[in-house]
Design brief:
about 350 residues; alpha/beta; Ubiquitin-like (UB roll); Rossmann fold; 3 domains; seven-stranded parallel sheet; six-stranded antiparallel sheet; 18 strands; about 20% helix
Length: about 350
Amino acid sequence: MACIHYEGRAFESKGNSVLDCLLEQGYSVPNACRAGVCQSCLMLARSGDVPARAQAGLSAAMRIRNLFLACQCFPEQDLDVASTDAALVIGAARVRSIARLAEDIAQVRLEPSNPFNYRAGQFLRLYLDGQTGRNYSLASVPGLDDFLELHVRRVAGGRVSGWVFDTLEPGDTVTISEASGNCYYATDRPEQDLLLLATGTGLAPLMGIAREALHNGHSGQIRLYHGNRTGHGAYLAGALRALAANHSRFTYQACVSEALPGPGEVHGRPPEVALRDIPDLTNWRVYLCGSPRMVEAGRIAVFLAGAASAEIFADPFLPYYALPLHIGHPGNAASVPDSDHDPQGGAPSPGK
């Protein structure tokens, strides 16, 4: 039976995850989705072998530093672990601007104090204080933008989103983490057709992916479908239509699921609308970001339409208070949103 060593104590795992073992021993360990997505239970392995499952979705740099997801770590041998605020590389950033993209969505642009390495579509953690942080996807593109752009949806009772909307001002200094997540543009097949499916502020990472692909001269089709319950959630539609007008390889479609569509909109959820337009997804690469319901249903739908499992990249935005969610997508799990993102399909981050 594997033994877990933590803060000078040792106890048997009894086949449970490291997270459950620590919680059973009375330790307070940050956790949210319990699905290995939100990364709020990130821990450090001081010694012992970490199962590969416990590092799925982590960057190569994180894996090299022996970081792992406690909720997904079922040790097969003794493991010495530590929880640490230094699990992520932390830095400072200045708020350049805050603007409203919609009544409940704020565009936050940050200038990091030090060089910040990331890929369009990844996410970072924005900290309210030493104990409270939320994950937000990056809408900016390295090499094109000299700032980091986040789309923050206001959530009733959300501590971080409330702070962003009510207190944060341009010129303020904030604390952020390094970027992580596997839902980003890959340059290996520039001729490959890309399908981007988003709901709510899940648009942020996919807009970044589309812009980076175009910037890199991607020659395949890039088709973005953005869904909301009502047309009021289709923020940045004008900018995306302008982008489509300037790039023949890029198309954008706003989708409305629970209201009559307005001009330029169609009725239906992104996967449904996309598959009406493209029934055969053989050889396509697919990205899904937003509500867990859309992501999971969409993942199955695009797989059945011919997309290879290795070409499906999914980023469900889980609320911090969500019950355990088993996301068995065959692609790469990426960031997680918290309750400061819209449960309908917003952006990434856990908790209120």
